[in-house]
Amino acid sequence: MSHTNDTHAAQDGGAIAEIKKVTIILSVLTIVELILGFWMIGMESKALVLGIKGTIVILMMAKAFYIVAYFMHLKHEVKNLIMTIVVPLTLFIWFIVAFLADGNSFRNLRNTYNPYFKEQSTIKVEQPAHGGSHGGGHEAAGAAGAAHTDSAAHKTDSSAKHEDAKHETKNEETKH
Amino acid sequence: MSTTTTASPTEAKLWGGGKSPFSVEYGKVMMWYFLMSDAFTFGAFLISYGTVRFSTNGWPDPNVVFKSFPFAPEGINAPLVFVSVMTFILIVSSVTMVLAVHAGHNMDKKGVVRNMIWTIIGGIAFLSCQAWEWNHLFHEGAWWGRNPFINADGTASSSNFTNFFFTITGFHGFHVFSGVLINIIMLIMTLTNQFEKRGHYNMIEKAGLYWHFVDLVWVFVFTCFYLL
Q1: Is residue A115 less than 8 Å (CB to CB) from chain B?
Q2: What's the rounded Cα separation, in Å, for the pair A114 and B219?
Q3: pLDDT of residue B189
Q4: Which of A42, A75, B31, B148 is the most exposed place for a label (fewest CB within 10 A)?
Q5: ipTM score assigned to the predicted complex
Q6: What is the domain count for chain B?
Q7: Are B106 and A99 an interchain contact pair (Cβ–Cβ within 8 Å)?
Q8: Distance (Å, rounded) from C-alpha B116 to C-alpha B88?
């Protein structure tokens, strides 16, 4: 409490400068995210899309860090307080890895052992017109899919489980 | 104050009783713990969304679903534009909130009032944007349980997409709504000199923590639904 008015004023200037700096950083990170998002539209290369998505996630974590550390002031708190908040949040690492891996494994299992699931996800449908009767669009899509079921089933039987083969099946279907 | 944590004699005093070892008031510690629990709630929502998405072969393309803009002609193709506006509204309102907290530190009532008003306006603007987007999607036939958008690869989609979208953005919108209410209460308390009488603006700090958390959650919701 022995602060003089001078040091107090200096701290004020520092705080405002910090707010400005963090605002600029957050804006720049958001703009970069949006540029990456626009760049991804209609992109063919799966690997590049995955790379961009990974970059976006990293930028998202950076934004979260700046909001929590500076706007929520956590960086300037006592270390004990920081630890009681940050350490429990590390549970999220397990949480995300375990659940996403589980989801992925469930998809692989269904694609391997559930022919109906696999078949349904290879049938092309038309985009229903917007507006009009609500909910009707989905049923119409289902009916359109049912018409194609037979040919699609033959295609999926004959074609290998390979990812590329699946794409070829789709292309053939659209030509019919 | 910032140097007290490293030196060991002061550390012993820190835990010696008689003062908060975290050197913040009780209410603020409790706000942090509430926000932590809220983070796990949102985390559970977003991770279940991720899990379902990972377990499905196809998923609608967000750039096809979210391509409209208010007052623009029907059928405009402007992906990401409207959501960028929403994101910047929330970032700016977060900045004005920091400025309000900062003004509170200096016992600057006018500064607190001005910045709180801007923060409330930002919150209401964000809610209006979200209301427009929900209304627009509803009229395109999207709602809980029905999904008019087909998957990006041209296959039939399920209603998982709309269910998660409306649940999670709705839960976030509800947080924004309560944040605006809290901010309005803080503004009234400031205007009626409640904090001047107390001699500190600690309540503004706690409301600020909540408001920043709402912004923080939007960073994740925005990325997960519109970008990935």
Answers
A1: no
A2: 37
A3: 96
A4: A42
A5: 0.88
A6: 1
A7: no
A8: 17
Asked if the structure places residue B102 within a domain, the reply is yes
The domain that holds B164 is classified in CATH as 1.20.120.80
- Distance between CA atoms of residues A106 and A101, nearest Å: 9
Residues 147-166 of A with CB under 8 A from B: none
Range of the domain at B55: 25-227
Amino acid at position A168, single letter: E
What is the rounded distance in angstroms from the CA atom of residue B31 to the CA atom of residue A140? 50
Give me the phi and psi of A21, to 5 degrees please.
-60, -45
Poorest-confidence range of A35-49, B33-47, B191-205?
A35-49
The rounded distance, in Å, linking the Cα atoms of B21 and B184 is 32
Tokens of B222: 């925005």
> Residue B185 pLDDT more than 50?
yes
Domain membership of residue B14 (yes or no) is no
- Residue B85 belongs to a domain: yes
Q: How sure is the predictor about A12, in pLDDT bands with cuts at 50, 70 and 90?
A: low
Are the beta carbons of A103 and B106 separated by less than 8 Å? no
> For the segment B90-109, what is each residue's pLDDT rounded down to a tens digit?
999 999 999 999 999 999 99
Res B53: pLDDT:
95
Q: For residue A145, what pLDDT is reported?
A: 39
* B8 located within any domain: no
Q: Contact, A88 vs A44, CB < 8 A? A: no
Inter-chain Cβ pairs, chain A and chain B, closer than 8 A: 175
At A130 the pLDDT is 56
Which neighbouring-strand residues pair with B143?
Answer: B146
The nearest CA of chain A is from the CA of B19 a distance in Å of 13
| B102 contacts A15 by C-beta, under 8 angstroms | yes
- The DSSP output letter for A129 is P
Helix H, strand E, coil C: the string for B108-172 is CHHHHHHHHHHHHHHHHHHHHHHHHHHHHHHHCCCECCECCCCECCCECCCCHHHHHHHHHHHHH
Q: Residue A37 half-sphere exposure, CB side, CA atoms within 13 Å?
A: 29
**Residues B47, A100: C-beta atoms closer than 8 Å:** yes
